[in-house]
Amino acid sequence: MSFLKHNGELLPNSIRVVSRGKRSGGFFKLRFLQSVFLLATVFLTYFATLGMNIFSPGDLDSRLLSLQEVLQENPKVVKPPVKRRRKYHPCEIQFVESVNNIVEPKDYMNFTQFSLDYIDKEENKHFGIINFEPRFGGHQTLQERENTFYATDKTLHCGFVKGPPGSSSTLFDLEEKDRAYMNTCRVVVSSCIFGSSDYLRRPDRRMISEFSKKNVCFVIFVDEQTLSTLSSDGNIPDDQGYMGLWRIVVVRNLPYKDMRKAGKVPKFLSHRLFPSSRYSIWLDSKMRLHADPMLIIEYFLWRTRSEYAISNHYERHCVWEEVLQNKRLNKYNQTAIDEQFGYYEADGLTKFDPSDPNTPLPSYVPEGSFIIRAHTPMSNLFSCLWFNEVDRFTSRDQLSFAYTYLKLRRMNPDRPFYLNMFKDCQRRAMAKLLKHRELSPPSIT
User: Fold this and answer.
1) Which of 51, 289, 356, 425 has CA atoms 20 to 30 A from the CA of 183?
2) Alpha-carbon Rg for the chain in angstroms
3) In contact, 255 and 262? CB cutoff 8 Å
């Protein structure tokens, strides 16, 4: 090792080497920074040039055109946001614990009394119609229609009208054995499937008492097409014509091409199909009954001293809203809806006002899939009137309910009709709502 002399002292030569190392490190650091700067300059220049090419006016149009071509060749379906439907739930009903504890109240049937008879045959000499054709609902004049709203002894149109001798049947033809059975029914639960529009929904036997199984008639009307479809599903009537609790009654020669309108016959005219019955419950074929019929009658009719019970609609309460909804969803021919609604407005139908303490009903729009009836004169009259409106106008019975009820009430101020409009959540507690198999398109004629 060599030494250097400094101020008379000897210092090792390695100190000079360290000093040279520091100068060498600074040199390399400077070269590294210069290299980074150079690379950064190159990248910035490249990207600046690329950006000018991308956004140059002439090239932008061609690039957008190419993008459109790609999208056309490979379209990407963008689904609109799904609007979540509001969910509706059942609510509790305070039924009595057992059918063994219920008795029809004394003098329950002591409602407005008068007698009704029904027109069962028409002849052209009364109308002078060219190419006269019999109609299931008859050829009711406007004056006859007006008179039928008075709750007095009368004979009125209420379906099942025959033509002159030699003409076709009234339609809605039933076998004699089924008619004989229906004449024995005192309490009825009924439904219908026409046009294979639904599956067979059997009542929940676990919820039906032994008393009701023995004493209540469960009847479902089907056409021949539906019977064939049910058979292909494995639902075949037994030797007595039953599928579970349902007695299958086959209807031939339906009176309307519109299956929805044909379904109004058993829906509204149960007092005519079951002439000996005192009570009836109707439920649409999309519903499965899971409550005892006698408990239902006790709660909604006997306990409230009502002769007719139907639930309000779950969303809409004004007929104006129902009209708009039917037109928006194309439920029926819009010209026919306008004609019907215009007639009702001219005859005094007003909007529903929930703030009016004198409003006779909690809603002017029903959920008509579940109806409970006592077969009293006023209840039967209302059912005939409501059916006649459906026969004359559209099959959308929610449009004619309020008009029929309010007009009947207005023309009989001293003869009350005891209608109980209950909550929709109670309807959901009595029957489970299911989807249709297939909806038949409505008639546009």
Assistant:
1) 289
2) 39
3) yes
Residue 160 pLDDT > 60: yes
How far is 13 from 219, CA to CA, in rounded Å? 120
Specify the 3-state DSSP secondary structure of 262: helix
Tokens of 434: 């299911």
For tokens 């109240």, the residue is: 105
In terms of C-beta density within 10 A (0-12 exposed, 13-18 middle, 19 or more buried), how is residue 69 classed? exposed
Q: What is the dihedral of CA 92, 365, 401, 436, to 10 degrees?
A: -70
Q: What is the mean pLDDT of residues 316-321?
A: 95
For residues 152 and 112, give the distance between their C-alpha atoms in angstroms, rounded to a whole number.
10
Amino acid (1-letter code) at residue 213: K
Distance separating alpha carbons of residues 363 and 420, to the nearest angstrom:
11
CA atoms within 13 A on the CB side of 294: 21
User: How far, in Å, CA of 263 to CA of 284, rounded?
Assistant: 9
Question: Taking a C-beta distance cutoff of 8 angstroms, is the pair 385, 408 a contact?
Answer: yes
Q: In whole angstroms, give the CA distance from residue 431 to residue 424.
A: 11
| Residue spans of alpha helices (H) in 249-375 | 259-262, 264-268, 270-273, 293-297, 319-328, 334-346
Task: Measure Cα distances from 262 to 174, 223, 392, 413 in Å.
Answer: 14, 10, 13, 33
Question: Residue 246's beta-bridge partner residues?
Answer: 243
Cβ atoms within 10 A of the Cβ of 213, count? Answer: 14
pLDDT, residue 54, reads 43
Interhelix angle 14-54/57-73, rounded to 10 degrees, is: 70
pLDDT of residue 435: 83
- Name the pLDDT band for 4 (thresholds 50, 70, 90): very low
Bridging pattern class, strands 246-251 and 308-312: unpaired
Task: Give the Cα separation of 397 and 322 in Å (integer).
Answer: 11
Q: Classify residue 413 by its DSSP letter.
A: T
Query: How far apart (Å, rounded) are the C-alpha atoms in residues 286 and 200?
Result: 9
* Three-state secondary structure call for residue 419: strand
Q: In sequence order, which residues have a C-beta less than 8 Å from that of residue 151 and are 6 or more positions away?
A: 112, 114, 377, 378, 381, 408, 411, 412, 415, 417
Per-residue model confidence as pLDDT tens digits over 58-104: 444 444 444 454 445 555 555 666 666 778 899 999 999 999 989 99
Q: How many other C-beta atoms lie within 10 A of the C-beta of residue 440?
A: 16
According to DSSP, the residues that pair with 155 across neighbouring strands are 117
**Mean pLDDT, to the nearest integer, of 278-306?**
97
Distance CA 85, CA 76 (A): 26
pLDDT of residue 420 exceeding 60 = yes
- Decide: 181 and 274 in contact? Cβ < 8 Å: no
